[in-house]
Design brief:
Layout: E1 4-8, H1 12-24, E2 28-32, H2 35-45, E3 49-53, H3 61-70, E4 79-83, H4 88-97, E5 101-104, H5 109-125, E6 132-138, H6 145-158, E7 163-167, H7 175-179, H8 187-191, H9 199-204, E8 207-208, E9 214-216, H10 230-241, E10 246-251, H11 259-265, E11 268-274, H12 277-292, E12 300-305, H13 316-323, E13 327-331, H14 335-344, H15 348-351, H16 356-369
Parallel strand pairs: 1-2, 1-3, 3-4, 4-5, 6-10, 6-11, 7-9, 7-10, 11-12, 12-13
Antiparallel strand pairs: 8-9
Helix pairs in contact: 1-5, 2-3, 6-16
């Protein structure tokens, strides 16, 4: 797929010349004639590089550059500043605004094309190492899988990790509800009717929570629902894995055509279950499925959600032996704390950080950062 270049310049002659030169080299060229239009297209069209004129009537190039760098969706896009000003102080101002390169008008087209190619190559070399993928898989519905994924993600983000949480549900998911986020773009809106979204478009669709956690939202309305294919999920995971330290996946407990690949790509699988017999039987079946996928049980850890108090429940040691896996932890009964968090629209780990369940969730998150993951063996 051709790399996408956005050229922002209020001079129509310059736009035509630069656009033609880049198209001759096989680039997909977008054009904008003002700073505000350039900002809009950068956010909506997710270009791979921006050629940005400085002298424009509404917002000058320095202001546009600063705004692009301040927006998580565009903060890493390579930018070449293009201007008639050639003094050292002007170039310094461009670099301080966040530009990666600076070309003085009138630029030779062959030089500009060469600088674009070099900057795109340099940007590809500078990509961050791929994230560790952690999948949260519920033994069955309603065991607290999303709650665990959200709170672990928030803890990682608050600890300084680049953490992204993808809600991999083609139907309605509740990650955004837990975080009180109102997404402008959902997974369904992004991929409905097409499967060829670029990595930059996918990363641009992330929503950032106040904690720093980035979220790819599931559909929020019936008209956004999406029958996700393996190709779509693979594209999403590829894009997000290159943009984070930890990529958390909220995986549906029901069978999907793509679940095998997601779990096989995971560095670790958190199997969430309650202590009651139905959940434990379902957890046992989930482990059988994981084994059939050719995944080692050594990368699976149980997370027990303790919802009620009963003398007939199995202990953590008994559950570990029954499932034949180590445990990440046991979350204590906390109905009041969880209800209060839901009313506030804030994860319990933020709304009540000293509560026992919050401390337990923090310990789970810390164990997941260890290499290998630190499990409790009984």
């Amino acid at each position: 797929m051709a790399r996408r270049i956005l050229v922002v310049d209020d001079d129509p002659t310059a736009l035509r010349l630069i656009g033609y030169s880049l198209q001759q080299e096989g680039y997909d060229v977008l054009t904008a004639t003002s700073g505000l239009d350039g900002l809009r297209q950068a956010r909506e069209k997710a270009p791979d590089l921006i050629v940005l004129d400085v002298m424009m009537p509404d917002l000058d190039g320095f202001d546009v550059c600063r705004r692009l760098r301040a927006d998580p969706a565009t903060s890493r896009v390579p930018i070449i500043m293009l201007t008639a000003k050639g003094q050292v102080s002007d170039r310094v101002a461009g670099f301080r605004a966040g530009a990666d390169d600076y070309v003085v008008k009138p630029a030779d087209p062959s030089e500009l094309v060469a600088r674009v190619a070099a900057l795109l190559t340099r940007a590809s070399y500078a990509e961050a190492p791929e994230a560790r993928i952690i999948s949260f898989l519920g033994a069955k519905g309603g065991v607290g899988t999303t709650t665990a994924a959200v709170n672990v993600g928030v803890h990682l983000a608050k600890s300084g990790q680049r953490a992204t949480l993808a809600d991999l549900r083609g139907g309605y998911g509740t990650v955004c509800l837990h975080l009180n986020l109102r997404p402008r773009v959902s997974l369904g809106q992004l991929f409905r009717g097409r499967e060829d979204r670029t990595s930059r478009e996918i990363v641009g669709a992330l929503h950032q929570h106040a904690s720093g956690l980035k979220v790819l939202a599931s559909p929020q309305q019936p008209e956004e629902y999406l029958e996700m294919s393996q190709a779509v999920v693979s594209t999403v995971v590829d894009a997000l894995q290159a943009d984070a330290d930890f990529l958390l996946l909220d995986v549906p407990h029901v069978h999907t055509p793509w679940r095998r690949e997601v779990l096989q790509r995971s560095h670790f699988i958190v199997l969430v279950t309650e202590q009651e017999p139905t959940s434990l039987a379902s957890a046992k079946m989930a482990l059988t499925m994981v084994e059939e996928y050719g995944i080692s049980a050594s990368i699976v850890g149980g997370l027990i959600v303790h919802r009620s108090r009963s003398s007939t429940e199995m202990s953590a040691i008994q559950i570990s032996n029954f499932l034949d896996i180590g445990l990440l932890g046991v979350l204590p009964t906390a109905p009041e704390e969880c209800m209060a968090a839901a009313r506030m629209g804030a994860p319990v780990i933020l709304s009540q950080p000293q509560a026992s369940i919050s401390l337990s969730l923090g310990q789970v998150a810390e164990r997941l950062t260890a290499e290998p993951v630190s499990l409790q063996q009984f």
